[in-house]
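Crash report, auto-generated. Payload:
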Amino acid sequence: MATIVKRVVGALLALVGLAITAAGVWFATQLGTSGTAEFAMHPATTDPVVVGPEVLNRVDADVVVTATPTEGGSVFMALANPSDATAVVGASQHVTVTGVSVRDWALLSGTTGTGTAPDLGAADLWRQQDDAKGPVTLTVQQSEAPETLVVKAEGGQLSSLTMEVTDKSWFVEAVVGALIGLFLLVVGVVLLTARRTRHHGDVAVQPVPPVPDAAGTIDPDQPVGAGDGSEPTVPLPATVVSPPEAPAAPDTTDSPDPHDPEEVTR
Amino acid sequence: MTPRPLPTTRTLSRLVASTTLLGALVLAGCGTQDALVGLHPAPAEQTAAAPLDAEGATAVAARLLAAKDAPVGGDAKAAKAARAEVLTGDALRVADAQATRAGTPAGTTELAAEPQPTIVAQSQGRQWPRAILASTLDEATNTQWLHAMVSDKPDQPFRIASSVPMFGGAELPALGEQLAGAPLLDTAQKNGLAVSPAAAVKAYAAALAQPKGKATDVVAADDQFATSLKTAAAAQAKALGKLGTLAQTHDPQLDDAITFKLADGGAVTFGLMKRTDTISVKPTAKELVLPAEYAKLLGKKKVTKSLVLNNLEPIVIVQPKTGQGRVIGASDLLVSGRGR
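Recovered output after restart:
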């Protein structure tokens, strides 16, 4: 039973270690030594795209957002207080970025609202804004959090929106994770492949019989046995000494078996 | 005595396995991953604050003041549309009236001010309407101007709602920490004051009436503006002599008034009054010959029965938490008239 548990634990550890190792290596290669995570989406829309603080302001590092319009178009991109951005976009149809997917480094989004958005550029509520033909980039500084980013393509569609975060510690953590996973994998494999050499049951100590009145003597220069491999000729005392290693399964017989090679008599 | 069993290899293996598994589970547990990569909840928005930072508010004010003074091309309709892009409320009403009277764009009016604003205060909170209170110094006349700028809706930009020159030596009490914002108050409500700002303006208007104003202790009526009006009215009455009489009334026009709460609990209100000067020609007079300014406005050089002149008077009135209010700035602009 104990062996089964040990092997199950070993298998689990090996699997977990393998997974963590793979994840660590994958993250390390994806993030690079700079620890840069880049998430992207391709909304292909003329509606405003709103990126809230639950996406922009959950890390300590600054977030660089780049919006690229389709050929010939321009992009309006601005930062505002979250409540201001919500108020100006209102109930008009817009795309909301709800989170990120690390698996494919994508920005997750959903479309809500109806109707056409107002002229966002006319509003006087933007903390920072830029409007240009071609790609536009804004840096979200965490010291100004919370903020909401609003992006809208003009004269075309919004081709892509990328969000880049750089944290060098992520790469270090990925490497450390891979090493931890490797350790778990090794431990698991060891547990899984360790063979049962003996059954390590409890040691049964036999009671010590009383010493006979006329104890025999042993000449250390003389063989104890008969010399032909048969029974010893000298009467044996009943003292039984446990072997230096744990004996096999406890023998419940009252007297030691003189033929047991693991028992040493003297 | 039973000997204590020594830890066996199996025991050690179990210990290592259990510890490692536990560690792995803890590392993979809820929240641990977020903490490992530095993820945390986004900070909450502080809504009881000024909507714009100082830099943003200054940029808005500078843009508006520059646009107000910029020359406008096109016909009267285009000029009016251009004014409406920059002005609103009382300021738009004054500018339109002035343009109608003079036939010139608002960029050349006396409302012109140096486009180097200092932000005095912003409205507090995230709701609309929002307001910015800015000041500029006209170095040519050494006159300090106060400008109230308003954004009525989220998708509408700020516009200048009122521009008023301050009297020499007048002071505007503090409105509190700029980034904290100063709450906008309802002009018609008392807001913890002795009287509402609307009532204070009304009392001031009544006190300025000629030939006999209505005395009030709500607001002082001995400021520079009130004194000059009384002096001018007295001079006018004296000039008319037995030929006519002068009656002057001031009618508060507070639909677009803006009131900020002061740091000490008082209020500062940007309001507008419409002044009506009525000169009645006495039967003893055959006619009254009008000064050139009035003649141009009315399109006639003389009147035989009466002359009515209309002025718009933007004012700024300060009310302390307790005590008498005081007008700290005002101007008047002759906008229309009629004569018989």
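Post-recovery validation: The CA atoms of residues 39 and 105 of chain A lie 5 Å apart.
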